[in-house]
Design a protein that fits this description.
alpha/beta; SEC14 and spectrin domains 1; five-stranded mixed sheet; phosphatidylinositol-3-phosphate binding; phosphatidylinositol-5-phosphate binding; two-stranded antiparallel sheet; phosphatidylinositol-3,5-bisphosphate binding; CRAL-TRIO_dom
Length: 658
């Protein structure tokens, strides 16, 4: 019943309900079965109140015909029930038919006349047998227990009525909840500062309630409330007059309307929840990147002082990048979610979503840019330290070459060593230029490096790093300059040694040339001429030959003197002219003795030819006779000179001892 109390509406003897039948005035027929057991009047009264609340006011206005089935009850109970009708429904009851048992009650018991009490009761009461009930009500409006043909299944009616009551109660409760939720959501939308009550949900599932209502409405519209599919008269106790179908339709319409609004509320809640979740995640990403992430970058500012140190910093940076990658992955996911919301979102959310997307993108791109800038600085610093290490090793190698003693065997070896030094120095110069270039790159990158602090870019203090780079470059420049100075000294020393070897070689060559001249003088310069004229020519040629030998000797002497000077300059005490100077002097002495002997012989030959020619001229017919004394004197001169020349020719030009 409406107050929540459950009373049985099915008695042991029959059905306490509206069967759907109507009297001849179109009034509804109410059947009240009674039994031999004591009947609770309170239960009967409550049941009547419930049943009378079902019909419409229009239907109630036509009145009711009440059938009190007393065939299995006692008279006093029947009388009590009839009198109760006076108190419950006096105005609506037009006729009360009391069905008496076949064996009539004792006349003394039934002495009470209902018809005399009509005015007091407000309705007519008749006692009638079950087989004579058709006098007052058409048989088609009576159930089979009263001899009628009206089809009625009370349990089916009860079940369907329970479904209707359950649906009515649940839908009404659900409607109230949905209205409260929808109105609350509407108030939240008007008052933006008011926190929404996201936990306020309906106690029932709207889909289930709607499905129940549709099934019930389908039953009502098919007018097969009792579920009968066989023949007979179709019966619907909850037709339009009972307001069942209109009530269900009205409730369904209201429920659908409020459920549609509720679905929109849920959609708005889901969207708001998703938006709030995105906002929370965005702020988590932003707070971490601007907090711990930025702090990590701010503390990692060094570049190391060696390759190993820069590698360690790079490893730390990779670990830091790995941590950032996790947050960047969240950024990518959030960006996709925001893009999906932007493509399907409402216009009022576009500004907020775009703002979140822009904020997230700005922070992530700024952090990624700083990470990349830091990575570039570390990579450039690693290359700088690598170049510095290579340059240092080159300088050490060059210095080692310069500090080693030079003991070349000849000029070619000196030239090769000098070429190697020049190549080393050129390589050092190239490496130093590369070091300067890489150092400048690192300093430029560090000068452009900034960090995000208090909402703005703040330059990172890199003075220590810049001073370190400049110090390394200056140190390498000084070492390279020292090596250059040492290379210049070594180059000069090596050139002097080349000159020394050249002088020694040329001096030896001069000795060989002088020996060749001596050999030529001894072997080929032997003719003395056939006449004075030829002898004079040979004498002139010999003087020129001697001049050449003199020049060769002087050249050799000068080379040997230069060798002495170079040895002194090079502090090469182990080297000297050796046996070159004695050989030169010995060959020159031999040449001088031979040359002088050659000159004496040519001069004697010239005197001999001159005297002989004079004798021959005097003895010619053209001269006539000359004094005997003059001829004898001339002849003796020729003989003396000739014999002296012959004697000189028998003596060796130079003796074996030189």
């Amino acid at each position: 019943v409406p107050d929540g109390t459950i009373f049985p509406i099915y008695n042991c003897s029959g059905c306490f309900t509206f069967t759907g039948g109507k009297d001849r005035r179109s009034g509804l027929i109410l059947t009240i079965p009674l039994c031999t057991e004591q009947t609770s009047m309170e239960e009967l009264s409550s049941t009547l109140d419930y049943l009378l609340g079902i019909p419409s006011d229009k239907c109630k206005a036509r009145g009711f015909t009440v059938i009190v089935d007393g065939r299995k009850s006692q008279w006093n109970i029947v009388k009590t029930v009839v009198l109760m009708l006076q108190n419950v429904i006096p105005a609506e009851v037009s006729l009360v038919c009391v069905v008496k048992p076949d064996e009539f009650w004792d006349k003394k018991v039934t002495h009470f006349c209902f018809w005399k009490e009509k005015d007091r009761l407000g309705f007519e009461v008749i006692l009638v047998s079950a087989n004579k009930l058709t006098r007052y009500i058409e048989p088609c409006q009576l159930t089979d227990e009263f001899g009628g043909s009206l089809v009625y299944d009370h349990m089916d009616w009860v079940n369907k009525r329970l479904v209707f009551e359950k649906f009515t109660k649940e839908s009404t409760s659900l409607l109230d909840e949905l209205v409260v939720i929808n109105e609350s959501e509407k108030s939240n939308q008007l008052d933006k500062e008011r926190p929404p009550d996201c936990n306020f949900l309906p106690s029932l599932d709207p889909e289930t309630v709607l499905q129940t209502g549709h099934e019930l409405l389908s039953e009502l519209q098919q007018r097969r409330f009792n579920g009968s599919e066989g023949g007979g008269v179709a019966w619907s106790p909850m037709d339009d007059e009972l307001l069942a179908q209109p009530q269900v339709m009205k409730l369904l319409d209201s429920l659908r309307e409020q459920y549609t609004k509720y679905q929109e509320v849920c959609r708005q809640r889901s969207k708001r929840s998703q938006l709030e979740e995105i906002q929370t995640k965005v702020m988590q990403v932003v707070n971490w990147l601007e907090g711990p992430g930025t702090e990590q970058l701010r503390t990692q500012w060094g570049i190391g002082d060696s390759i190993r140190a820069s590698q360690a910093l790079q490893q730390k940076h990779e670990e830091m990048e790995s941590q950032h990658s996790e947050w960047f992955a969240v950024y990518v996911e959030l960006n996709q979610q925001i893009a999906a919301l932007l493509s399907a979102g409402d216009e009022e959310d576009l500004v907020e979503l775009k703002g979140l997307q822009q904020q997230l993108s700005d922070v992530c791109y700024r952090q990624a840019s700083q990470l990349e800038s830091r990575q570039n600085v570390l990579q450039s610093a690693h290359e700088f330290h690598g170049t510095a290490q290579d340059l240092s090793q080159q300088l050490d190698g060059l210095l080692g070459m310069l500090c080693a003693d030079v003991a070349p065997t000849d000029g070619a070896a000196i030239q090769q060593t000098l070429k190697h030094l020049e190549e080393k120095l050129k390589s050092v110069e190239g490496s130093l230029a590369g070091l300067r270039e890489k150092g400048q790159v690192v300093m430029d990158q560090m000068s452009n490096q900034t960090t995000w602090s208090y909402g703005k870019d703040v330059p990172i203090e890199n003075k220590e790093n810049i001073d370190h780079i400049q110090g390394v470059m200056e140190d390498m420049q000084l070492r390279k300059q020292r090596c250059e100075d040492m290379v210049d000294v070594r180059r000069l020393k090596m050139l002097q040694m080349v000159q020394l070897f050249k002088c020694e070689e040329d001096a030896s060559q001069a000795v060989e040339w002088l020996g060749e001249l001596l050999d030529a003088l001894l072997k080929t310069h032997i003719r003395l001429g056939d006449d004075a004229q030829e002898t004079k020519v040979l004498l002139e040629k010999h003087k020129k030959f001697v001049d050449v030998a003199q020049s060769t000797y002087d050249y050799g002497r000068q080379l040997l003197q230069a060798t002495v000077v170079l040895c002194q300059s090079l502090r090469c005490t182990t080297r000297s002219s050796g046996d070159t100077l004695p050989r030169l002097n010995r060959v020159w002495k031999q040449f001088t003795v031979t040359s002088e002997e050659r000159v004496h012989r040519l001069e004697m030959a010239c005197s001999f030819h001159t005297a002989a020619e004079k004798v021959l001229v005097q003895a010619s017919p053209e001269q006539g006779d000359l004094p005997v004394e003059l001829e004898q004197e001339t002849y003796e001169e020729v003989e003396t000179v000739g014999k002296a020349l012959l004697d000189r020719l028998t003596v060796p030009v130079i003796f074996p001892d030189g």
